[in-house]
Amino acid sequence: MVNYHDPSVILADLRALTRFLHVGDGVYIWDCFSTLWFEWSFVKGEQPYRWSIWVYASTRLATLLNVLTNLIGFNVRKSINCQLWLYSEFITAYTAFALGSLLMLLRIVAIWSTNKWVLGASIGTWLTNLAFLIRSVVITSAHWDHTLGMCVLDESQRSRDNTTATFCAEAFLLLVMLAGLMRQRDHYLGRLLFNQGLIWLIAATIAEVPPFVLLFLNLNGPWNLMFQTSSLLIMTMCVTRMYRGLSASRDHQQ
């Protein structure tokens, strides 16, 4: 039986977490810069202006800033202000999560524009999740561990509530979106959105279930954080790719 609180086990898990984060961060940096042509096409006027492009671009930017914050925090070897670093880490991550969910909410508004009850429930769900994310930033704390030579979160399982809220909120918004799209499957755009919704459902499940389960198991600090960043990266890459696909389909129809 593995003792996950043994210092040697924690150190090995921390090394695994660091490697895992570097791989995920590298993949996102590649994805981000290899798709900059999309934003550039709006700057050059090659695509019609849509205000939602700001939500799209802000989601990508917030995620990129989180990746850079990750790389700084897990590679620095001198004592830093860990609380400031942690605030930067959480604010960028949760901003990206909130904006990514907002892109989904905008689709729901377009699909259910005539049903105020569905719109009210969806907006309320998004705002509730946002409140949990803000709460998590307020209660979080970290300190510099001289033995490990890096910043360490105090009671990393504190983010369990907001992870649960995010998981439930995204599941609800997905179901609402898919229910609305079921009524529009006779149209090409409706079929496209429905298929994208299924992709999002699969990606959200893959991204959110592991951190959700591990936080409740609470094995140790590194395991509590193991899949937190990957869930953000998967969410961002999925929702932004779907946005680009929808934009291309609209342009094709026009």
From TrEMBL:
The keyword Transmembrane helix applies. Keywords: Membrane, Transmembrane, Transmembrane helix. The chain crosses the membrane at residues 53-72, 84-106, 118-144, 164-181, 193-217. The keyword Transmembrane applies. This is Transmembrane protein. It comes from Multifurca ochricompacta.
